[in-house]
Amino acid sequence: MIEGEFDVPSAGVLAGEVAAVLAGRRDPGVVVYERLLNAVAGHAYRDREGLTAALGGVPREFAARPHEVVGCLAAVVGAAVGPVDAGRYGEGTGAGWLELCQHAALDYVAGARVDELAGRLRAGEPVPFLLSVPSRPTGAVEPSDLVARLAAYGRLGVRPGPADLGLALLRCGGPVDAAAVRAAERLTLDEAPRVTAWLRRGGLPQPVGRREREAGEPQRPSRRRGARIGRRVLVGHEVFEGRGEFPRRFWSLFRPFEPHIGCPHGSLPDGRDAHTVATLPWHPEISAARLLAGVASAADQDGRGAPEFLEALAAAEGPAGPAVHLALAYALAAVPDGERAAAGRALVLLASRDRLDARLLGGDLAELVALGTLKVPLLTESLRTAAALPCGAAAVWAVLAAALPGLLACVRPQAQGALLAVAADSARLAGARGALPEVAALAGRPGSSRLVTQARRLNSVLTGA
Fold it and tell me: Is 213 helix (H, G, I), strand (E, B) or coil?
């Protein structure tokens, strides 16, 4: 039922892999985490006693706080090998659950599935496999795979968990699979009509994002640690219909997202990783919008970088719109080196998949520099690095061609010279043609400053002179 890289290993192999992940305390990646979570569930269903013998000695205590998914795996393992108590599990309506932060909607969804699985294991109600285990490394679930899994549940008399099924549905998307819809119509489970309707309309609709510029004038740079500069541009979206069909902890995802509303508990969550994107692989815009303020903080404050998040956004199944491109814009001028390097790789990946809107990204870069939010030397360095990647020069030039008119109007002459040097190198390697009036005007100035020299070099490339 579950094949390929998500296939269930033997109990002995599973024990070794779980021990390695728990001992390492670091993020094992989407494929490893999802495979192990599903494997623990499957072995508990088939041979709980054998699973307990294999995993019972695996330490699950941490001297230092592990990555969140490592803690989740430890909790599920503990529930699988612990004593059975049927009274400890219910449907988990979430009636007493309190939403603390609108930015953490995707974490709430993922957490609901883990809590549900652990609850079923503690109650002695294991499942043969998870409905939501991905079909692809991005987290996507093929509609045909979901229908086949539900059919197996029906044959085995297993009831789907609301959170597991909810996540599986959110992971389905893309073009409508007519064959999967017809197969879903033949399911005998109570959930069949809902699943059929969901697949027929192609899953969760894509959000209509709205860019929202922070009010006020750019702030002057401050020496105070953590002080923010500039003004941000963020992305919100309207309500999604149909939240009542999902567990209550999913509802935050369906509500309108207001990007400039702060968190009641005072700080943004750290949920920027590939697992967050894999929760909604067909909707990277939702992931990017919800966590865009965290990405921005790595550029205009002392924020933490999240390289895996950026590359997962670029590799996601769904379309890249304003939120994904703004995330890339902030990350290209982020303070952490790893964030900038990942942004360069994400830029090239988006271009290679024909998902890069160079005009949109170029406009974002020019606007954020004008707002005082991005540091131009860091942006220049990351673009130079990205241009050196395979096929990177064409992507960088496409972005700079759109950004240069705005950047040249608001950047100091010294920084302009460095930007034009990167532009000239990338344009030459990309074989670009087509003069830019702003560059031609600079090239026509007298003198031999770096600005004028690089403008002439770029203008010669573009005009073929």
Answer: strand
